[in-house]
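Record type: ASSEMBLY
Status: queued
Input:
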Amino acid sequence: GESVGLHLPTLSVQEGDNSIINCAYSNSASDYFIWYKQESGKGPQFIIDIRSNMDKRQGQRVTVLLNKTVKHLSLQIAATQPGDSAVYFCAENFGGSNYKLTFGKGTLLTVNP
Amino acid sequence: NAGVTQTPKFQVLKTGQSMTLQCAQDMNHEYMSWYRQDPGMGLRLIHYSVGAGITDQGEVPNGYNVSRSTTEDFPLRLLSAAPSQTSVYFCASSYGQVSVSYEQYFGPGTRLTVT
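Status: finished
Output:
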């Protein structure tokens, strides 16, 4: 979910479990959403995206679900691995341009071996 | 392709000093952006550019200048550094054709400390 103040929400899972990371977005006119993964000391990396005319999209071990009614986005990671440990950000785009992404504050995922 | 490159990786400045953070991309992307990331926060947009010669302000532009003289380069200038500008700075680029992808490609970041 979204963070409050300076503390990131955290999710701790066991290796092999499925993970679900949630995000509430702000603008009902947003037409595109992205999930990014950021490992410590690195820049964000693209994971998966979804347009507002879809409610589900699957990638390799990841699924993004979009619920426009409640402005909610989730990222599901199947069979979570230690290498999945990172901060995960959702970002939304509105206005038809692809240079004004608005990022959420992120969720820290820790995978325990 | 090197993707998006940023220099330097680390920098310490004294209050009042100026400097330029460099960003370059070799993917022929039209759009380039600068973000800052503070502890526990998401990325906040400082400035962006939709093409050579065109720049605009983002969410937190004060204290920063940009220019875009070529497609490849998008430097960020700190005019007079302040401790509030201590942050990690990320440059990103993306295609100009929205039908291709909205994905932004990020550089490795520059960690700036202002004392």
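Annotation: Residues 3 and 26 of chain B are 6 Å apart (CA to CA).
Annotation: The two ends of chain B are 36 Å apart (CA to CA).
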